[in-house]
Amino acid sequence: MKLHKIIGACLLSGLCATGAFSREVISFNDGWLFKKGPFATDVMKAAAQWESKWTEVTIPHTWNAKDMQVKTNSFYEGAAYYRKTYVIPETMKGKRLFLRFEGVGTCTEVYVNGYLVGTHKGGYSAFVCEIGEQVKYGENNEIVVKADNTARPDVIPVNHSLFGVYGGIYRPVSLVVTEPCHIAVEDYASPGVYITQKNVSKSAAEVNVKVKLDNASLQPETLELENAIYDAKGKLVKKHVRSLELTPQGMQSYTASFQLKRPHLWQGRKDPYLYKVVSRLKQEGRVIDEVVQPLGIRKYEIVAGKGFFLNGEKYPMYGVTRHQDWWGKGSALTNQEHDADLAMIMDIGATTIRLAHYQQAEYMYAKCDSLGLIVWAEIPFVNRVTGQEWDNAHQQMRELVRQNFNHPSIYIWGIHNEVYHPHGYTAALTRSLHDVCKTDDPDRYTAAVNGYGHAEHPVNQNADVQGMNRYFGWYERKIQDIKSWVEGLEKNYPWQKLMLTEYGADANLEHQTEYLGDALNWGKPFYPETFQTKVHEYQWSVIAEHPYIIASYLWNMFDFAVPMWERGGVPARNLKGMVTFDRKIKKDSYYWYKANWSKEPVLYLTQRRNVDRERKETSVTVYSNIGTPVVYLNGKPLEGIRKGYTEVHYVFDKVTLVQGKNILKAVVSYQGKEYVDEIEWNYTGEKNRGTVVHENKKEHAGW
To answer: Catalytic residue among 290, 418, 476, 614, which?
Structure first.
């Protein structure tokens, strides 16, 4: 954003002090040239290759938008280069200049005019490079970025197995310009401002604001630091001002404390009220830097066996998980795609979201703040341990925490997902990452996720919360075994803070059948949507009855790319989403959760894609959260309605179809309005496309 836009926005909100402040954040997304490898190792061939044709691109950009999504294990992982020329004006002499990258997949080298200015390992967190020493003012400067998404044993994730790490500069780039004295930019690319809160209630709250300052002037500077809290309308609530002498010897931290009376609490989806904290650095009365951060005043509490509490009141944790990639776009998304995903997550009635399995776009966390979605944020320590990822896991953990510290929506830091052998090393790394979180942020919870379903596994119990991924009926045992599993944990480990962090089944919309067992052979290519629906109908009903499961996260909100897989008749695809990869079709399971979770009226007849019926005598299922539906078959009302697993679940058994076309129509009158849903089935004789039933009696622990 240009300086004049920042000032304009501040003036409109009543936040801008007298006089212009100096930080300028300039979009750096346009004007890039791109060249993908592989590159020759021979110097002469490499030089010729370097000078050949480049492609014009705009950031966000990835080179894997198609090849990771259409064919199994057939995508480019390796090096690619981005090039850009940019004139740094003479007016910026004496300033500090930083390039800030929000996300590059995966390992990055940044050069300015042939000089290396920074490196970074990790595809999901932001990083900054100071470039002032290498630029030429008033002239063209060449910026070159090397990005390489080759899987490495020392950088998490260490493979492309659970999801693909898309190569490229796939999130925004900015040029940040500050005065020599400024609010820290290089503190792990964080805002340099850390807001904490204590003793939160309806009557009072304590808010502390820590600001990190940096001085590159080579002499102590007399400054004034102002921290102010504004309400949602831009009205000043409280202000704290202190004078200081800032040494040039290292970053310095300064804290302001506020006592707020009768604060307007952040209440999740019900009332996601946001204050703003504005930190201003002044010199001789002039604002020389300013950072604005969100403040949602809230208290999170997890009570083993009872549930999750927001501001002292029990709060339902209706959870989904989200992978960020889109069909045809990969991870190179704009805010439009993020908004579309969030709109569906809100529509389904979710109250909490697990952003899996990596740090996601800054925009996502900010929007969750304003929408009232409670967020699980995590690092990509998944799937496999190599013994070489210790340092990088710590780096990415610290980046996640510091960069997202002030988002009130985040309640938990995720440390790992389904990593095991060697157990001693993995447990030690988990404990160390937990300590990183607690050192930087003692007020939030930590979680580690295991694919095994028993509390005593050697890598468990090394974080505040134990997450378990369970796929009953899909990868192991029968659909109904979720009940005995959770009841066993309730009995034997009542002290355990447990979350069901993944559950579900795949669904290929081209695969439909009425013949369903209680366990599917996922190794066969037939993945019927109707089986996914059956899994979610039963398993949600068990989850809803067991507050011991503090939060549950269905896997997944959207289908996503898995470039190493070929399952369910679709290459490179995980089909466990409630919504298709292109975001065009909502599966039956989507409406199951919307009916159970949302306050919006839902009336929905299931199996609308299972048009070619296999049985003359069949059943009809309706989801309705607005009362008992009346259902007509070819104009005649059906009889014998019964309740299914929850209050919104209605079933008609032994419904007899006619030869040929059959029209089903569901009707409910609710609050003076008639709601109608209608589908068409076709029956031409008995047949059986049935699911291949197979119960894996061994415990499944992930990939």
So the answer is: 418
481: left (phi over 0), alpha (psi -120 to 50) or beta: alpha
* Peptide bond connecting 357 to the previous residue in cis, omega within 30 degrees of 0: yes
Q: How far apart are CA 499 and CA 547, in angstroms?
A: 10
Buried b (16+ CB within 10 A) or exposed e, 411-427: bbbbbbbbbbeeeebbb
Catalytic-residue membership of 418: yes
Please give the Cα distance from 307 to 343 (Å, whole number).
Answer: 26
Q: Beta 55-57 vs 79-87: how paired, if at all?
A: unpaired
Q: What DSSP state is assigned to residue 512? A: -
Query: Which of 21-30, 41-50, 397-406 has the weakest average pLDDT?
Result: 41-50
Question: pLDDT grade, residue 703 (50/70/90)?
Answer: low
> How many residues would you count in the chain?
703
Q: Do 691 and 660 contact (CB within 8 A), yes or no?
A: no
Helix (H, G, I), strand (E, B) or coil at 595: helix
Write out pLDDT tens, residues 587-613: 999 999 999 999 999 999 999 999 999
Q: Is the pLDDT of residue 9 over 50?
A: no
3-state secondary structure 416-462: EECCCCCHHHHHHHHHHHHHHHHHHCCCCEEEEEECCCCCCCCCCCC
Cβ atoms of residues 321 and 345 within 8 Å = no
Mean pLDDT of all residues in the chain? 95
Residues 6+ apart with CB under 8 A from 316: 351, 597
CA 286 → CA 163, 244, 283, 290, distances in Å?
49, 15, 5, 11
Rounded distance between C-alpha atoms, residue 343 and residue 451, angstroms: 30
